[in-house]
Write a structure and sequence with these properties.
Blueprint lengths: L3 E3 L1 H14 L2 E5 L10 E4 L10 E6 L2 E5 L1 H7 L2 E9 L14 E9 L2 H4 L6 E2 L2
Parallel strand pairs: 1-6, 2-5
Antiparallel strand pairs: 2-3, 4-5, 4-8, 6-7
Pfam families: DUF779
Protein name: UDP-glucose 4-epimerase
Length: 123
């Protein structure tokens, strides 16, 4: 069972960004402002913290989550979506396109919790 999936709009945008920028990564921080939305970077241009968690890969893009946020949301499924808006800041690659990634959450069922994919920890 995947911990993260994406909408068709988010898939289209990720593919557009990959074509323009190459390999990408997504990062969801637990802080305020820019930390309230997932950020998209060229792979390797954002430095992960010790024990940050990769909850999965979508369209070949790793989705990393702040270690503290993961502890809070480890029982939730993430669905990457996109809206037509400019988010809290300008570091994410989709911002110049007038787009902002966002995450929709839902709690896993008990059956789903038993079938979850393993996460990868940054050490």
């Amino acid at each position: 069972m995947n911990r993260v999936d994406l909408t068709a709009k988010a898939k289209d945008l990720l593919l557009e960004l990959k074509e323009k920028h190459g390999d990408l990564m997504l990062y969801q921080a637990g802080g305020c402002c820019e930390g309230t939305q997932p950020q998209c970077f060229r792979k390797g241009e954002f430095y992960l913290r010790y024990k940050d968690v990769c909850i999965g890969e979508i369209e070949g893009v790793e989705f990393w989550v702040d270690k503290d946020l993961f502890e809070y949301w480890k029982h939730a499924h993430f669905e990457l979506d996109v809206i037509d808006a400019i988010g809290a800041g300008g570091f994410s690659l989709e911002v110049p396109l007038g787009k902002t990634f966002k995450v929709n959450y839902r709690i896993f069922t008990q059956d789903e919790l038993q079938q979850l994919s393993e996460v990868k920890i940054n050490l």
